[in-house]
Structure formats: C-alpha cells, structure tokens
Amino acid sequence: MSQTAASRLEIRQVGSPADLDTFIRLPWTLYARDPAWVPPLLSEVKGLLNTRSNPYFGHAKAAYWLALRDGVPVGRISAQVDTLVQQHMAPGLGQWGMFESIDDPAVPPLLFAAAEQWLRDNGMTTSMGPFSLSIWDEPGLLVDGFTDPPCLMMGHHLPYYGAQIEGNGYTKTKDLYAYLLDITKEFPERIRKIVQLGDNNPRIRMRMADPKRYTQEVTLILEILNDAWSDNWGYIPLTPDEIAYAAKKLKPIVKPELVRICEYDGEPVAFMITLPDVNELQADLDGKLLPFGWAKLLWRLRHPVTRRVRVPLMGLRRNMQSSRHGAMMVFMLIEHIRRATVGVYANQGELSWILEDNLPMRNILEAIGCYIYKTYRIYEKSLI
C-alpha cells in the first residue's frame, strides 16, 4: 500500500472479495451523469474476473488496484501478463486495463505506478493498454464518439481519460475503428452487381449457421477466424477452452439467420456473425439480474428488436484474402445479413473493431456507405 499525505490518497491492491466488489462497482459512481453509459451486468464482470471459470486465466494472470481518498474509491486499474501475448505479440509485453478515475491529476500516476511496478516485477519491459482483460474482450480507450452508447462488448469511457493516460507517459500504438452503416439503404449499384455475380457463381455457396450443430459451427467459425486473423496486429489465438466458453456465453443471443458461412469449391472459407445490441435490452437493469432483471432480459431476447446490431467477428481465410472471389464473398456476407436484419432486428449496423491500417477491409466498408463513428486507442510505454 502506498499513500500521499497531502492528497490523502492510498493505492490498495485488491485482495479480498469486498475489495473486488468495490473494484467492479466503481463505474456506477463515475458514470452516474453520463447518459451514454450502459451499466454492464454485474454477473458478466464477475465472470470475467473469475479465475476459476474464465479460461483466459489458463494462460494469463492479473492483479487489480483501487485508489481511495479517505476510504472512498476514486480510481482503479488492472495489470495482466499473458503467455500467449508473449508468444504472438512480443516477449516482455505486459498489459493493463479496466482503468477508471475521477478527474483529478493526482490519481492516475499512483494507479499506473502500481500497475507498472507489478509488470516489472513479473519480467515485463513494455506496458500496453487498455485491454479489459484481453484483446477479445474490450480493447482500447474510447477517444472519439462519446455521445452514442456503446454496442455490446465495446467499451465506453470518460472524455478526459486520454489526457490522463498520455500524461503518464503513454503514446498511441494503434487505433481501432467502429463503423456505422444505415442498413435500410441498398448498396450502390456496382456493389449489388458484385453480390449478384457471387450469388450466381456455382463455386460459391452461402448458408446460414445450423442451430442443431451449434458447437460444430462455432468450432468451424473460430477455426476460420484463427486462420484469417493470424497475420493481424494484436492477434492472439483462442484456446479450445476459450472457444467453448465463448460459445456458451453467446448462445442465447446468436440468431442463425444473422450468421453466414461461405464455402468456395466446397470448403468453408469465410463467415460473418451479427448480434443484436444486447446493451439496449439491458440498459434499464442497472447491471442487476435479480430479482426480476433476468426475466425481463430473457423475454426481450426471445425477439430482440434493437436500434443497432453489431458485427463483432468476420473472417476470410488467408489464401482468399487477395483474390477477387474473396472480396466478392465479403460483400455477399454483408448484403445477405443486411437483408435478414433490416425491418426485423434493427436499422443500423456497427462493424467493429477494424484496425486503422486494415485498408482492404476499410475500403470495402466505405464502398457500401459505412463511416467511422467511434475510435478506440491503444497506448504503449516502455518500462525500462
């Protein structure tokens, strides 16, 4: 524990269930006056941090700290060391996340000092974040697009956080974009012709996911994903346990008509998953499923009509990514799911997140009328 007498601040590493509960609930205080914030389900956050049930902790470890002034929580931060990050991104790369703070310049330096020292003590030479907890959860700090509520599995932050992070020696390493699409509008004529050519091509077959083979379909989709994303910045492969964990969590909100798989010459090579924006369905629950929140959410999920849907995952095998037919299948996936979505589930689609330097995908999205409406930033700092 460290303390500064002048500001009466203390930094305490989370070490008890009570501390962890305080850590989890801090955003309810900080975002109380932010109309765009959506309270997460407390059960989801607790599940994320549960070392026994979250398979992330099969290859990673984490620590958490609270900042308190006169015993009142005013900030928090996590630090993570992931063996898969060491293997696939860079050796010595530690991560941090779940950063929250009041608008006080005295708080962030103490939080970052604690997290960075823990990373050093665990052999890390670089600190990168925010990741809450991994790149597959909520990566990046929102730096543009504060007025719109976040879609499911995307973060929302207070506008002054960027200055606080940069003031502690962090610089931008990568931006992630969230694109928005008005799905009530048809695509430009040239795109419609590309989709029609694909529909008429005997080498290409598109199908919906089969709910009777849910586990096998999830395994297939994530196998394509691991191949498609393996050259991308930040790529960390999902383990079999993580695939099973994600499949179980997503099953209640996956709609087969909003999942498409493309086959080329009989081989599955591309997919796209679209999910209703569950954030809209749970925004009034204040994070609580008890006593009646679970019943409300369950009823709403039976036919989840929302303003937006989100495309969290799309993948095209590497051997198709530079081909004409590969681009054709991406347009087909988006268009077929657009048709299944509009007027039934939503009228807007968020496609996120997209790396700022993924120009082929950005060009495809912008060709159909997508535009960037949120930007998330990942920062880096040397610990040497």
Q: What would your notes on this structure say?
A:
This protein has 384 residues and is α+β, with helices and mostly antiparallel strands. It has 2 domains: 2-176, Gcn5-related N-acetyltransferase (GNAT) (Aminopeptidase); 181-375, Aminopeptidase (3-Layer(aba) Sandwich), CATH 3.40.630. It has helices at 17-30, 42-48, 83-88, 107-121, 161-166, 189-199, 214-228, 240-250, 278-282, 293-302, 324-341, 359-367; strands at 2-4, 9-13, 60-69, 72-82, 93-101, 126-129, 131-132, 138-139, 141-144, 171-182, 204-208, 259-264, 267-276, 308-316, 348-355, 371-382. The strands form 2 sheets. Strands 1, 2, 3, 4, 5, 6, 9, 10, 11, 12, 13, 14, 15 and 16 form a 14-stranded mixed beta sheet that branches. A hairpin with a 2-residue loop joins strand 3 and strand 4 (72-82). The longest helix has 18 residues, at 324-341.
Q: Averaged pLDDT, please?
A: 94
Q: Could you name the CATH topology of the largest domain? A: Aminopeptidase
Structural class by SSE content: alpha+beta
Could you name the ranges where pLDDT drops below 50 across 5 or more consecutive residues? none
Largest sheet: 14 strands, mixed
The CATH H-level superfamily of the largest domain is: Gcn5-related N-acetyltransferase (GNAT)
Number of strands: 16
Q: Quaternary arrangement of the chains shown?
A: single chain
Give the proportion of residues in helices.
Answer: 25-40%
Strand content: 25-35%
Domain module count: 2
- By CATH reckoning, the class of the largest domain would read Alpha Beta
How far the N terminus sits from the C terminus, by CA atoms, comes to 23 Å
Shape: globular
Please tell me how large the radius of gyration is: 21 Å
